[in-house]
């Protein structure tokens, strides 16, 4: 089903408090990890989006029992071994996180696994997880993309693995496979979100972590079973970021986003926006099962300045760059973002899309294969027609375009509103609440 969102005026000033839905990374990890325990795990505030529902469908196919109503989800998993016969067909839909992580979990599967995904996922690189999983002993029919089939092995051997991209998906896939191997897997990983490490620690899975400046060293020892995992999923900072930026760009507005996960490996967006002159404060800080949580307060900023964005923040803001680029469009001076080749490996080639949308908005920018320079204009105000059609239906391209329309004006037609169902189904409802 196609849905077109038409916007032809800026949002009026607001002063509101909102909740965003549960964090996607934590939601998918909770589902997959819970499938490993034969006892009941319970989650509250699990994100009810297509990526998470596809994760649930996959573990159900593998033998887990799941009850999911509005705010509570229960999983009784199938333990460390799948008790099914024959080839198992799994569909990861649009989710790179699900598609990659589940292969790690299935390293010890006796069944042949056939994994498919939608048009966008079928274009994405799977060699990044196929290669390390082959080292554990798995066999694959594909070298790079979906659909693929994998054959696991009863006794995977632990590996030494160097993760150089700063990809939490690659790191987690290997950590999951390590959990099912005999012996200790040693990982040296460029810094990336560390939710899996925190969950492993909380579950008392034998893990050792040495934090370095750019790389972390992680050792995971294999096990035969794990405890159930009860969890209250905090709000998603990646979803919050769209509203933080809308508020920064909207005259006389202010916003409180309640109960958001502010894990240090996820708050690159906050550091970047603050460096650009935004007013953002964390309130009511607490720690929950190793994760940092806070309410985020943000106000409209009259004076935004350009940034030469330090690359050390890239991984911790990787899902937020599209929306950060809108702040750069209004900042005084030329902003420069570099070493961002990974952005073109997402649900759609996002660096290319960012440049396209900025061009449509009349914002001068110079893009290379892994960088973009954005020439900001503090008086940016649009009154032209803009049509956005992202053929890969990238949810974040849709949300970036919506926020651009509401912040800068113009006459916008934004296709594929349905794309938000993958990560943030309540996005448009929250916007309506801000307007009312
Ligand atoms: C994720 C890691 C990131 C991020 C994705 C979710 C995760 O991907 O872009 O949305 O949950 O581990 P990479 O690990 O490929 O950078």
Summary, kept brief:
This protein has 436 residues and is an alpha+beta fold. The protein has helices spanning 24-34, 50-61, 96-105, 127-136, 168-179, 195-202, 237-249, 268-275, 321-330, 350-360, 395-408, 427-435; strands at residues 5-7, 15-19, 40-44, 65-68, 72-76, 88-91, 112-116, 139-140, 148-151, 160-163, 184-190, 207-211, 215-221, 231-232, 254-261, 279-288, 291-299, 334-337, 365-367, 372-375, 382-388, 409-414. It is 29% helix and 26% strand.
Write the layout of secondary structure elements.
Layout: E1 5-7, E2 15-19, H1 24-34, E3 40-44, H2 50-61, E4 65-68, E5 72-76, E6 88-91, H3 96-105, E7 112-116, H4 127-136, E8 139-140, E9 148-151, E10 160-163, H5 168-179, E11 184-190, H6 195-202, E12 207-211, E13 215-221, E14 231-232, H7 237-249, E15 254-261, H8 268-275, E16 279-288, E17 291-299, H9 321-330, E18 334-337, H10 350-360, E19 365-367, E20 372-375, E21 382-388, H11 395-408, E22 409-414, H12 427-435
Parallel strand pairs: 2-15, 3-14, 6-7, 10-11, 21-22
Antiparallel strand pairs: 1-22, 3-5, 4-5, 7-9, 8-9, 11-13, 12-13, 15-17, 16-17, 18-20, 19-20
Helix pairs in contact: 1-2, 1-3, 3-5, 4-5, 7-9, 7-11, 9-10
The structure holds shikimate-3-phosphate.
Residues 25, 97, 167-169, 172, 192-193, 318-319, 342 line the site of shikimate-3-phosphate.
């Amino acid at each position: 089903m196609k849905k077109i969102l038409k916007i032809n005026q800026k949002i009026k000033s607001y002063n509101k408090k909102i909740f965003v839905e549960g964090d996607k990374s934590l939601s998918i990890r909770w589902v997959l990890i819970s499938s490993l325990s034969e006892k009941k795990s319970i989650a509250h505030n699990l994100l009810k989006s297509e990526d998470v529902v596809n994760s649930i469908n996959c573990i159900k196919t593998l033998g887990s029992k799941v009850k999911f109503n509005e705010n509570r989800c229960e999983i009784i998993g199938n333990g460390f071994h799948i008790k099914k016969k024959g080839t198992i067909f799994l569909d990861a839909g649009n989710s790179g996180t699900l598609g990659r992580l589940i292969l790690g979990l299935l390293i010890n599967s006796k069944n042949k696994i056939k994994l498919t995904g939608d048009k966008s996922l079928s274009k994405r690189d799977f060699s990044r997880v196929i290669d390390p999983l082959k080292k554990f002993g798995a066999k694959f029919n594909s070298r790079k993309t979906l659909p693929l089939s994998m054959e696991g092995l009863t006794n995977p051997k632990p590996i030494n693995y160097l993760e150089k991209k700063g990809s939490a998906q690659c790191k987690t896939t290997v950590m999951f496979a390590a959990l099912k191997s005999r012996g200790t897997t040693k990982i040296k990983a460029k810094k990336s979100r560390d939710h899996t490490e925190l969950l492993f620690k909380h579950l008392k899975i034998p893990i050792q972590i040495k934090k370095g400046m750019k790389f972390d060293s992680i050792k995971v020892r294999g096990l035969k079973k794990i405890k159930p995992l009860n969890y209250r999923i905090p709000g998603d900072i990646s979803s919050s970021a769209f509203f933080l930026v809308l508020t920064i760009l909207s005259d006389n507005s202010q916003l409180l986003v309640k109960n958001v996960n502010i894990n240090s490996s996820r708050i690159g967006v906050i550091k970047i926006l603050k460096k650009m002159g935004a007013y953002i404060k964390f309130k009511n800080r607490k720690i929950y099962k190793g994760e940092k949580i806070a309410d985020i307060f943000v106000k409209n900023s009259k004076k935004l300045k350009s940034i030469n964005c330090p690359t050390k923040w890239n991984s911790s803001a990787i899902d937020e760059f599209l929306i950060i680029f809108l702040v750069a469009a209004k900042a005084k001076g030329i902003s420069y973002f570099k070493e961002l080749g990974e952005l073109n490996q997402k649900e759609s080639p996002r660096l290319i899309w960012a440049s396209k949308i900025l061009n449509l908005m009349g914002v001068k920018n110079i893009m290379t294969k892994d960088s973009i320079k954005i020439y900001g204009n503090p008086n940016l105000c649009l009154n032209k027609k803009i049509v956005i059609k992202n053929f890969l239906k990238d949810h974040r391209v849709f949300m970036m375009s919506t926020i651009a329309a509401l912040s800068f004006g113009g006459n916008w037609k934004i296709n594929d509103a349905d794309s938000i169902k993958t990560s943030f189904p309540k996005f448009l409802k929250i916007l309506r609440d801000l307007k009312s």
